[in-house]
Amino acid sequence: MTRDAPTALIISWVWVWVWVAISLLHHAQGVRVSRVSLPQPALVGEPASLRCHFSTPNGTFFSVRWYKDERQFYSFVPDRTPVKQAHYLPGLFVEVPESDEHVVQLRRVEVDNEGVYSCEVIGGKPFFKSSSSTANLSVACELRMRMKQLIRITNIGKRVV
């Protein structure tokens, strides 16, 4: 017994929709960044670890990107060479060898490092869904260090004998 063309077309469309629904359910959760952990407060002159807590289906993702005040300063892309890359942002010193997809290691904290930090994770094929989280970094410095900075600033242009 053969099916007529409209019935075959309907059955084909049903299978397409079933496949789409299963694919969407499989990838519905996608990547999820649960939080960003930053030292509070970070100390001037000290190293700092910035941590991105995320989960991905099957442990795969396209990229992890870090931003300070909406400017990208670090990326981790497994399918790219080099996998880890620091992007220039004045006053932000990333220790690339010690950084990975979850942690960005700053060599030393500067006062200007205070700001809003975001971690964005972009999922893999075929949907490339993204998720992000942000946190504020506060920077503190010891009074002794601040006094040295002030003395240095006030001595600029003075002749030292």
TrEMBL record:
<dbReference type="InterPro" id="IPR036179">
    <property type="entry name" value="Ig-like_dom_sf"/>
</dbReference>
<dbReference type="InterPro" id="IPR003599">
    <property type="entry name" value="Ig_sub"/>
</dbReference>
<feature type="transmembrane region" description="Helical">
    <location>
        <begin position="6"/>
        <end position="25"/>
    </location>
</feature>
<dbReference type="InterPro" id="IPR007110">
    <property type="entry name" value="Ig-like_dom"/>
</dbReference>
<dbReference type="InterPro" id="IPR013783">
    <property type="entry name" value="Ig-like_fold"/>
</dbReference>
<feature type="domain" description="Ig-like">
    <location>
        <begin position="45"/>
        <end position="138"/>
    </location>
</feature>
<keyword id="KW-0812">Transmembrane</keyword>
<protein>
    <recommendedName>
        <fullName>Ig-like domain-containing protein</fullName>
    </recommendedName>
</protein>
<keyword id="KW-0472">Membrane</keyword>
<keyword id="KW-1133">Transmembrane helix</keyword>
<dbReference type="InterPro" id="IPR013106">
    <property type="entry name" value="Ig_V-set"/>
</dbReference>
<dbReference type="Pfam" id="PF07686">
    <property type="entry name" value="V-set"/>
</dbReference>
